[in-house]
Amino acid sequence: MLPRARALESGKAAWDRPGRLIRGGWRSQSGSRNPAAGAVLAGDICLLTLNSMSCKAAMCAVTTVLWCFFGPGASADPLKFADTALEPVKWGDLAGWTADDHLAAFGAYQTSCQVLRKSRQPRDAGPIYSGLWDVCRSARDVRPQNAHAARAFFEQNFVPVRIARLGDLEGFLTGYYEPIVQGSRFPNPEFHVPLYRRPPDLVAAGHKPAAGPFPNKGALIGKRDEKNEIVPYH
After folding, report:
1. Cβ burial 66-96 (10 Å sphere, 16+ → b, else e)
2. Contact of 29 with 99, CB cutoff 8 Å
3. What distance in Å separates the CA atoms of residue 153 and residue 145, rounded to the nearest whole number?
4. For 209-232, what is each residue's pLDDT tens digit?
5. Of 76, 91, 180, 197, which is least surrounded by CB within 10 A?
6. How far apart are alpha carbons 205 and 104 in whole angstroms?
7. Domain extents for the chain?
8. For the segment 191-200, what is each residue's pLDDT rounded down to a tens digit?
């Protein structure tokens, strides 16, 4: 998202920071995967908030991206990205925008803002981070009672922008999300497939139990045989 008063230019990007995994999210209720059919809401730095109960898959190719940025705390200089075209569009151009669950989206946005609210704004923060920091703080006391009020918050504070490489019609966005699924501690007709904890004899080469989280990549994982060698776990 970009501030309403900020000019849009192409140029050198001066901001890059990995995203965080958070809970909550939303998608267009149309369910379309057409790049122009939906918008992605970034609630934290390069952050997607997608819920497995309301999103079948993270968007792959998106043309219209809502980039988090807030005007009052930002510089008046044009925001620039290398070899990138930024074109403001209207909210009405976003397919499914009016039908989305904006109240749920606002809840996800508030969750994603928790980390920024705990930190101080660094003096050398770039325009994107400063914008994220400002809008998250301004949303602290906002309590929309319905989807209309939540939608108004987004439309009053953000501007949808079409982002793509120069000469391309479609943009590409990679995001991360933490799925949230329904479950039960006891089996019943609805929840009858068990989800087991990690077996105690499932080990990773070079990993000690007290050394930290179990590695999920880059390690040989299996079980030890009678020769104390790690073999595939069956």
Report:
1. bbbbbbebbeeeebbbeebbbeeeeeeebbe
2. yes
3. 12
4. 777 788 878 889 999 999 989 999
5. 197
6. 42
7. 1-182, 198-234
8. 999 988 889 8
- In sequence order, which residues have a C-beta less than 8 Å from that of residue 229 and are 6 or more positions away? none
Query: Could you give the C-alpha distances from 7 to 1, 78, 80, 130, 153, in angstroms and in order?
Result: 13, 5, 9, 17, 22
The CA-based angle 3-96-42, given to 5 degrees, is 40
- d(CA 37, CA 48) in angstroms, rounded, equals 17
DSSP string of the chain, one letter each residue = ---TT--B--------------S-----TT----TTS--EEB-STT-B---TTT-SS---S-SEEE----STTS-SSPB--TTEEEEE--GGGSTTTTTS-HHHHHHHHHHHHHHHHTSPPPTT--HHHHHHHHHHHHTTT----SHHHHHHHHHHH---EEEEETT-S---------------SS--SS--S--PPPPTT-EETT--GGGSSPP-SSS-EEEE-TTS-EE---
Instruction: Kindly indicate the confidence band of residue 61, based on its pLDDT and cuts at 50, 70 and 90.
Output: very low
Residue 185: CB atoms within 10 Å: 5
